Amino acid sequence: MKPIYLDYQSTTPTEKSVLKKMIPFFTDIYGNPHSSNHSFGSIANDAVNLSRKEVAKAIGAEESEIIFTSGATESNNLAIKGAFLYRNKYENRKKIIIVSTEHKCVKEAANSLISSGAKVIILNVNKEGNIDLEQLNCLIDADVAIVSVMLANNEIGVIHPIEEVSKVCKEHNVWLHSDAAQAIGNMKINVNSLGVDLLSISSHKIYGPKGIGCLYVRRRPRIRLISQIDGGGQERLMRSGTLPTPLIVGFGEAIRISNTDLKDNIISLKLLRDRLHKNFTNYISNIKLNGPSLDNNRLPNNLNYTVKGISGANLAEVLGNQVAFSTGSACSTGGIEPSYVLHSIGLDDDSALSSFRISVGRNTTIIDIDKASKIICDKIKLLQNNEN
Amino acid sequence: MPQVIFKYKDKETIIDEESNNLTILEIAHKNEIDIEGSCEGSLACSTCHIIVDKEWYNKLEEPSWDEEDMLDLAAGLTLTSRLGCQVVLTDELDGLIVSLPFINNDVRLNKKKY
Q1: What does the angle CA A363 – CA A261 – CA A252 come to, to the nearest 5 degrees?
Q2: Residue B107 has pLDDT above 90, yes or no
Q3: Which residues of B touch A224 (CB under 8 A)?
Q4: CB of A91 within 8 Å of any CB in chain B?
Q5: Exposure string (b/e) for A158-167, b if CB count within 10 Å is 16 or more?
Q6: Is A331 considered catalytic here?
Q7: For A336-354, what is the mean pLDDT?
Q8: A219 closest CB neighbour out of B68, B73, B77
Q9: Is the pLDDT of residue A21 over 90?
Q10: Portion of chain A with pLDDT greater than 70, in percent
Q11: How far is CA A154 from the centre of its chain?
Q12: Does the pLDDT value for residue A150 go beyond 70?
């Protein structure tokens, strides 16, 4: 039996129709999109621009505000390092504010700036993973270069009130960055209604190829960044390097599809997720949902549970060839350190290690859900009985 | 008769401009002040980059997207940088202070032999 994939938050398969659009750009239309003086290059360039338009449209931005990168990790690095270094240089702003539950790359990017004189301030979250706007209000001042608050969390699916954060930032002329890697494709995103200045997106979370993503950089009021990769000055001097035409074509098509089907997709994701949740809570005793309640500010595809007494990592591993899910973010799997996100919402080491994350996706069926919940429930019951 | 003060390197020039509505670039050229302005004000270069005095910057109209795009390419950019061709001197701006960035690097003037 082919294992059932329930780890769509770590990555998604590239849609076949997306791949089909990409193929010609590997072999036939191979021109360098920056060699616009001959037709090989200009055709590639047209394709890149078309994708840029699709990406911009999907998040309510202008084409020229899209900077292609290798993915959300690079986007987050460019946003935080680039913005801090610029504002530190010209305005002597020294502080960075991030949330305790940010993705590792945001935390590490911020921490790496400490040696350049940055002071990193961490916002706490409550038991459901929500930030406290009052705390932000107290900590923010004209010394802050950038605030980074993820749109939706990768482990517990909580959606942060970016619009409110934006209002606070604007009062102090502080730039706002948001990591939307998990949110894209799972909720409507508009950079202007959110009020963000910088927004990171990855293609492989929305059924596009891996290795491509973008950073939205607001042009009015103008956000300027110190580039982190220098060279030929591509992407408005902010990210040098020849653009990977096939990947960009795939990204553009993937985001177009995900934006077209967004509403229906959200409804069906919720349906699948809620069914899984019902199965779990019906069959397993003392199972606890981590993060906000399902009908609240939570991603439609995410579930995160703690079952006391069982090891999440162990469970995911023994079931690995039947159902694929994970203990938390894929980036920190491999180590058995308890999740810092779960720590932040008040779980102790034991509880954090007894947790696992399940995420449904576009290709998940109701049959998958029922099968997978039976496999997981049976295993948990077995482990629980062995304990007793 | 609005006045504009150009500051550069270690000196400054005060100009009383008789006509209203000339751009800083035009005034500089009229008075042989060394601002290049290669594209003659058509927003295609950033060689008329000027730095507006902090006190004055917010009194100017906001730069257009196109101007900001050109400023992205300017060397030695500051928070109060503008393009000289886009700032029009009016009576409201009487007393405007601008300085010239000290980074002009024209290879033709570089007499060093290689």
Answers
A1: 90
A2: no
A3: 72, 77
A4: yes
A5: bbbebeebbe
A6: yes
A7: 92
A8: B68
A9: yes
A10: 97
A11: 6
A12: yes
Instruction: ipTM value, please give it.
Output: 0.75
Contacts of A64 in chain B (CB under 8 A): 69
Residue pointed to by tokens 């606890």? A288
| CB within 8 Å: A236 and B72 | yes
Q: What was the pLDDT predicted at A337?
A: 82
Does residue A331 carry a pLDDT above 50? no
Q: Which residue of B has its CA nearest to A238?
A: B72
Question: Catalytic: which of A105, A169, A331, A377?
Answer: A331
What one-letter code names the amino acid at A254?
Answer: A
What 3 state SS string does A42-81 have?
Answer: HHHHHHHHHHHHHHHHHCCCCHHHEEEECCHHHHHHHHHH
Task: With CB atoms and an 8 Å threshold, state whether B65 touches A220.
Answer: yes
pTM of the predicted protein model: 0.91
For residue A303, which amino acid is it? L
Contacts 24+ apart (CB under 8 A), A227-235: A227/A78, A227/A82, A228/A77, A228/A78, A228/A81, A228/A82, A232/A34, A234/A34, A235/A67, A235/A68
pLDDT at A116 exceeding the cut of 60 = yes
